[in-house]
Design brief:
Helix 2 packs across helix 4 and helix 3 runs antiparallel to helix 4. The chain contains 8 helices and 2 strands. By secondary structure, the chain is mostly helical. The chain is 75% helix and 5% strand. The chain has one domain. The chain has a two-stranded antiparallel ribbon with strand order 1-2. The N terminus is likely disordered.
C-alpha cells in the first residue's frame, strides 16, 4: 500500500507512518532486526560511543559551569577532548540511524523517540549558540575559574539536555 498523501499549507506531506513502516519492513531493516548478532553489536557500539562522547562532553560542560577543573584552561581541555568526543558522537549518530532502520515504525509511534529527537535538536541548537556566542570570546575567560554567564548557561543546558536525551532513549528501549 502506498503512503497516504495529504495537502498542508501548499506542500505535499507523505504519511510518515507509512514511510517508517516501509523502512522497518525493508530488507536491511528486517535483516538487522532479525539477526542474532547484528542488532546487539550495533546497539553495543551505540551505547559505548554514547558513554564516550557524552562523558567527555560532560567534563567540558562541567568546566564551563565552573564546577570542575577551575585551574585548567578551557581551550586546552577543549583541544584534548573534542577529537575524541567527536569521533564517539559520529559513531553514535551513525549507529543510531542504523538502529532506527530496524525499528522505524516502532520509533515513529513512540513518544519517547519523538522527545529524544526534539531534545537532540535542542542540544544541537545549544551547541551552535555556544559556538557562535561564547567561543569567540574564549580568550577573555579561558583561565577564569568561573566562565561568563552565557558559557555557564550553555554548559548547564547541555548537561540537562543530554541527561534527558539518555533518559528518553533508554525509556524508549523498554517501551517498544
Amino acid at each position: 500500500m502506498a503512503p497516504a498523501i495529504e495537502r498542508s499549507g501548499g506542500f505535499l506531506l507523505a504519511d510518515l507512518a507509512g514511510i517508517c513502516k516501509s523502512i522497518q519492513d525493508s530488507d536491511i531493516g528486517t535483516s538487522i532486526r532479525e539477526s542474532t548478532y547484528t542488532f546487539p553489536i550495533i546497539e553495543t557500539a551505540h551505547v559505548i560511543c554514547l558513554a564516550i562522547s557524552v562523558g567527555l562532553i560532560l567534563i567540558t560542560d562541567l568546566r564551563l559551569t565552573g564546577t570542575i577543573l577551575k585551574k585548567r584552561r578551557f581551550t586546552e581541555l577543549w583541544a584534548q577532548l573534542k577529537p575524541i568526543f567527536t569521533v564517539g558522537f559520529v559513531i553514535m549518530f551513525v549507529t543510531g540511524i542504523i538502529l532506527f532502520l530496524s525499528q522505524a515504525y516502532k520509533a515513529y509511534e513512540s513518544v519517547f523517540f519523538r522527545t529524544k529527537i526534539l531534545l537532540l535538536i535542542l542540544a544541537a541548537a545549544n551547541a551552535l549558540a555556544f559556538e557562535y556566542t561564547s567561543r569567540p570570546s574564549v580568550a577573555q575567560w579561558d583561565t577564569a575559574a568561573l566562565p561568563p554567564p552565557r558559557a555557564r548557561f550553555a554548559g548547564w543546558a547541555s548537561i540537562i539536555l543530554w541527561a534527558a536525551i539518555i533518559a528518553a532513549g533508554r525509556t524508549m528501549a523498554y517501551t517498544f
